[in-house]
Amino acid sequence: MGTLDGKVALVTGASKGIGAAIAGALGAAGARVAVNYASSREGADAVVAGIKAAGGDAFAIGGNVAHEADIAALFDQTTAQFGPIDILVNNAGIFRPAPLEQSTEQSFHDHFNINVLGVLLATKAFAAQAPNGGSIVNISSIVSRITPENFGIYNATKAAVDALTHTHAKELGPRGIRVNAINPGMVATEGAQTLGFLGSEAEEQFVAQTPLRRIGKPDDIASVAVFLASDEARWLTGQLIAASGGL
Fold first, then answer.
1. Domain extent at residue 123
2. What does the alpha-carbon distance between residue 108 and residue 31 come to, in Å, rounded to a whole number?
3. Does residue 44 contact residue 36 with C-beta atoms inside 8 Å?
4. The pLDDT of residue 1
5. What are phi and psi of 62, to 5 degrees?
6. Which family is it part of (predicted)?
7. How many CA atoms are closer than 13 Å to the CA of 63, on its beta-carbon side?
8. pLDDT tens digits, residue range 33-68?
């Protein structure tokens, strides 16, 4: 038996990278999983196929987490197919680094709409339909603490996610809803590859500063998410888990 047998999970931004790994791990642990995507239906379908091939149950569902109507549709369709949602993983996000001189109003709003407003709206919807409690896992980042240069807007969004994690844990705890965050270090994802971080001097610097001397893999984050979603973490809420190899 899996640690999440009988549970229903919704993972936002789950068509690739960390989100895809988390969706797969939740499915392997026994949860039925709604795999959300914003643009890559193909990627989400591949994640669903992987979960089903391993004996689990999942379906793909599109939606922009920055739009409240899309959030409502995500919850309505997931509930219609699987029943009330027990686990919410707020993973959807964007990352477009730029120095201060190249930071724009549009970039600010794009980042905050997805990375912060999306967390707020999804958490609000989850709380409205979870009378028996549940677990929310926010995917933040260690950049909220180490604040690397040229990441100003992104750093600020993840600091906001940390603040929402603490605040929502206090607000929702009396209702049996736990809210925690995972703060990964650099992780080898498609996004990191596209931005040129993998194999770069930036990667070398991260590895040199990391006690375990490597960057993370999506599965490193997924295993922490499964733990936080499970009853094994029943006494944890409002926590920021730095899954970063010691950085």
1. 8-189+218-242
2. 35
3. yes
4. 53
5. -85, 160
6. Belongs to the short-chain dehydrogenases/reductases (SDR) family.
7. 26
8. 999 999 999 999 999 999 999 999 999 999 999 999
Q: Model confidence over 178-187: pLDDT tens digits? A: 999 999 988 8
Residue 25 lies in a domain: yes
Q: What percent of the chain lies above the pLDDT cut of 70?
A: 100
Find the CATH number of the domain harbouring 112: 3.40.50.720
Tell me whether residue 154 is one of the annotated catalytic residues: yes
> Catalytic: which of 154, 197, 206, 227?
154
- pTM (global) more than 0.90: yes
Q: What is the C-alpha separation between 63 and 70, in angstroms, rounded?
A: 5
Q: Which tokens is 183 given? A: 């703060």
| Number of domains composing the chain | 1
Q: At CA 207, angle to CA 203 and CA 213, rounded to 5?
A: 150
